[in-house]
């Protein structure tokens, strides 16, 4: 923190000079938000997953929108649901065009939905894709979605950032989108007008937008992989906004330092997702439930919440917060108790060696590896806290930071003892998050493969997604979440929040329900 504060003070004078000496630049800045991101936007094809979700959300829209008040109309003005829950008939807005001038209508919706279904295997993590039976054009502005089985999260999943967003059919390649597209023509409030890979992207206001026009003319997305560079750019006045979740743009030490300085506005969302550590049940040591249970009691979550996260996040007693639908189950919290952790390991035959202070069984040392995303600003510090806690009970923990892609590849391979996990947050939790547990490409699946009832777990998740009776569905969620809790596959840490830091002149900075979206369209400059 000391280094950050010194940096803030050292550039303050230069910042004031710059802001006072160039009124012409100030005037231009008021019509353009400069947003600092550690990541390039990459390919923002709305039907694929390699692009940044915040950028996809700026350009492409969905039939419905997830809000704090539930699902609301968007490109569809209204909808009807058949009594058997199999047919959703959407009545589309008639005043919408894609940014290339193409008309948005039921035929365009069908072409997009068919293109998504043409890549069904890639989207299989989302159960709605598996349940779509037919896409029907009823008339020019009426589209009907036909399902194989009733599916209660249908509207919620149609409102997600991807893949159910709409691209002009003129941008399809050979009638599909799965192998690439020729342009990014959406119906959203922004148009991607310039992209220099790994440098910056410029989004300009869509002058033909059907809804309320953005309050500024442009958003300049500047790529700054180094977090200290982002901070310095903010202090120099080169950046207006830092916005992100889980430390991917700014760590909490820096956030607190900027808050204390008082030169910038700091904002924090309500809790949006669950931060946890995966314990791989399919590894030799963490495959022992006694070891997994001991690790639960060994980690001082409160110290992590207070010491690293500066009290900004609350301790997570269970994987999903009780406020998440179907998750208020009264499950027993495993509080910090190193004595209990030691007793569990003693009973499991892991004996403490008085010479080196570590535990052994049958000549094998109790030695584990934790992997974290090195691009994340705070995971290393949390890892070091956990390493220290486990040392106190005789466990040697090695921590390894990896670039994001290597980290994701390790999730797919299952080559980890411990690994960071973050639930997807609202509006994905619990349905979409649990649905992904059945997909081998996800770390959750790999960590669960050693469980005796893994096949039952996957089957029950599949069944509950199509269970029409609310009471039965509640009972099935309770079974799944209770089983995972009892098997100690996750060490819940805290419930995370999205954070924003911006110049005082930038107004209208708010949060969407999804941590992956940045509502630039609400923002504007006010120098009065």
From TrEMBL:
Q: Which CDD domains match?
A: PBP2_NikA
Give the highest taxon in the source lineage. Answer: Bacteria
Q: Where is the signal peptide?
A: 1-23
List residues of the Solute-binding protein family domain.
71-441
The cross-references to InterPro entries, in alphabetical order and at most eight, read: CntA-like (IPR011980), Peptide/Ni-bd (IPR030678), SBP_5 (IPR039424), SBP_5_dom (IPR000914)
Q: Which keywords does UniProt give here?
A: Signal
Cross-referenced NCBIfam families: nickel_nikA
Q: What is this protein called?
A: Nickel ABC transporter substrate-binding protein
What lineage, starting at the top, does this entry show?
Bacteria, Bacillati, Bacillota, Bacilli, Bacillales
């Amino acid at each position: 923190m000391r280094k950050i504060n010194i940096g803030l003070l050292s550039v303050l004078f230069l910042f004031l000079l710059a802001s006072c000496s160039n009124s012409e630049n100030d005037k231009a800045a008021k019509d353009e938000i400069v947003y600092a991101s550690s990541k390039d936007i990459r390919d923002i094809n709305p039907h694929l997953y390699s692009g940044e979700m915040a950028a996809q959300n700026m350009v492409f829209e969905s039939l419905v929108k997830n809000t704090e008040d539930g699902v609301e109309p968007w490109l569809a003005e209204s909808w009807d649901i058949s009594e058997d829950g199999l047919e959703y008939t959407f009545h589309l807005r008639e005043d919408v065009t894609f940014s290339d001038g193409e008309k948005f209508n039921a035929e365009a919706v069908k072409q997009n939905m068919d293109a998504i279904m043409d890549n069904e295997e890639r989207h299989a993590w989302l159960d709605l894709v598996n349940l779509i039976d037919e896409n029907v054009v009823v008339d020019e502005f009426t589209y009907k979605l036909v399902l194989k089985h009733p599916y209660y999260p249908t509207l919620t999943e149609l409102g997600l950032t991807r893949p159910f967003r709409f691209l002009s059919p003129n941008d399809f390649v050979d009638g599909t989108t799965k192998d690439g597209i020729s342009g990014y023509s959406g119906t959203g409030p922004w148009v991607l007008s310039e992209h220099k890979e790994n440098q910056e992207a410029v989004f300009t206001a869509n002058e033909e937008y059907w809804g309320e026009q953005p309050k500024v003319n442009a958003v300049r997305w500047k790529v700054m992989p180094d977090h200290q560079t982002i901070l310095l750019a903010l202090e120099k006045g080169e950046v207006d906004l830092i916005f992100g979740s889980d430390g991917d743009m700014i760590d909490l030490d820096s956030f607190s330092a900027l808050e204390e300085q008082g030169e910038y506005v700091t904002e924090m969302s309500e809790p949006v997702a669950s931060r946890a550590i995966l314990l791989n049940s399919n590894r030799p040591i963490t495959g022992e439930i006694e070891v997994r249970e001991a690790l639960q009691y060994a980690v001082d979550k409160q110290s992590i919440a207070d010491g690293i996260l500066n009290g900004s996040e609350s301790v997570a007693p269970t994987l999903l917060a009780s406020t998440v639908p179907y998750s208020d189950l009264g499950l027993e919290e495993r509080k910090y108790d190193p004595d209990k952790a030691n007793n569990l390991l003693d009973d499991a035959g892991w004996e403490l060696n008085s010479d080196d202070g570590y535990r052994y069984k049958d000549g094998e040392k109790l030695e584990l590896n934790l992997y974290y995303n090195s691009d994340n600003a705070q995971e290393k510090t949390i890892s070091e806290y956990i390493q220290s806690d486990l040392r106190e009970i005789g466990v040697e923990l090695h921590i390894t930071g990896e670039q994001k892609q290597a980290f994701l590849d390790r999730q797919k391979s299952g080559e980890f003892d411990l690994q960071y996990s973050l639930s997807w947050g609202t509006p994905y939790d619990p349905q979409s998050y649990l649905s992904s547990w059945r997909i081998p490409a996800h770390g959750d699946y790999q960590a669960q493969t050693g469980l005796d009832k893994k096949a039952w777990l996957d089957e029950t998740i599949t069944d509950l997604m199509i269970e029409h009776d609310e009471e039965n569905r509640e009972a099935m969620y309770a079974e799944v979440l209770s089983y995972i809790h009892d098997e100690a596959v996750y060490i819940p840490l805290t419930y995370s929040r999205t954070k924003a830091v911006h110049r005082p002149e930038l107004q209208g900075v708010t949060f969407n329900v999804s941590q992956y979206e940045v509502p630039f369209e609400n923002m504007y400059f006010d120098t009065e």
